[in-house]
């Protein structure tokens, strides 16, 4: 279901308690814009500390118009035993350019292939 309204900044956030064992974060996005990329728009995703004081990793940052779903993965082992946040954001300050992001299939998997349970949610971020 949509997690944002048209205009301004829209974010989807997921808090992750990283297990002590080696795990990998994976998620899929499909990012679009219409009619063209704009300096007034931005799509980004990153990993930060629980309180947001430290940026840990940037997955992407810019304007994207994916024709297919794109997978992003990251080994979370360096942050084992801590809490981190995955942030997916859209920012828009143009009334002429539309932008949206689909976010799906977020998983955390250990080295043995076991998947940790996450809330079953899908996000659609919209900006105009």
Write the layout of secondary structure elements.
Layout: E1 8-17, E2 23-34, E3 41-49, E4 55-62, E5 70-75, E6 83-92, E7 98-110, E8 115-116, E9 123-127
Antiparallel strand pairs: 1-6, 2-5, 2-7, 3-4, 3-6, 7-8, 7-9
Walk me through what this model shows.
The strands form two sheets. Strands 2, 5, 7, 8 and 9 form a five-stranded antiparallel sheet that branches. The chain has a four-stranded antiparallel sheet with strand order 1-6-3-4, with no helix packed on it. Strand 7 (98-110) and strand 8 (115-116) form a beta hairpin. The protein has strands at 8-17, 23-34, 41-49, 55-62, 70-75, 83-92, 98-110, 115-116, 123-127. With 128 residues, it is mainly β.
- Strand coverage percent: over 45%
Determine the fraction of residues in helical runs and give it as a percent range.
under 10%
Low-confidence stretches: 1-5
The beta-strand count equals 9
Quote the distance from N terminus to C terminus. 17 Å
> What gross morphology would you assign?
elongated
Global structural class: mainly beta
Rg of Cα set: 15 Å
Largest sheet, if any? 5 strands, antiparallel
Quote the average pLDDT: 84
Order of helices and strands: EEEEEEEEE
Helices, by number, come to: 0
